[in-house]
Specification:
Layout: H1 3-32, H2 41-66, E1 83-88, E2 93-98, H3 110-115, E3 123-128, E4 131-140
Antiparallel strand pairs: 1-2, 1-4, 3-4
Helix pairs in contact: 1-2
């Protein structure tokens, strides 16, 4: 992932571990004051939300710990973090994609694998499960 993506994940994790976690703890404490916990839906809802939050925190911590931060290429070569405009000339369509393991096209996917290392103007063969197709790199930024 790029440094910007790493920083965004770290900021989101800080938000989840700080204010969001505190708000859920407060909601649980408030719900406990409503009485019998066996029929207290506010309490059960808050505990459920706490479990989901803790799972999200665990996933984000693991992702950050195993992340490899890469430098973005400035020389027109497609790499992780690049936003690429590609043209499928057979279909007459263009699309803009981001090569990213966080919220974009994975560099390990068929399209990502074909594009990484390509330069503007090159045509690459994308070997997808339902057949191969040709993609031309229109721009990289």
């Amino acid at each position: 992932m790029t440094q910007a993506q790493h920083d965004a994940l770290a900021a989101e994790l800080a938000e989840l571990e700080g204010p969001r976690r505190s708000a859920i703890v407060e909601a649980i404490a408030t719900a406990r004051g409503f009485g019998d916990l066996s029929e207290n839906f506010a309490y059960h809802d808050a505990k459920n939300e706490q479990g989901l939050l803790e799972r999200r925190i665990t996933i984000m911590r693991a992702r950050l710990e195993s992340a490899v931060v890469v430098e973005q290429s400035a020389d027109g070569v497609v790499g992780v973090g690049s936003v690429v405009e590609v043209a499928d000339e057979a279909a007459g369509e263009t699309m803009e994609i981001e090569i990213s393991s966080v919220g974009g096209v994975s560099p390990d996917s068929p399209l990502g694998t074909a594009l990484v290392g390509a330069k503007v103007g090159e045509t690459v063969e994308v070997k997808a499960p339902q057949g191969s197709w040709q993609a031309r790199v229109v721009s990289v930024h």
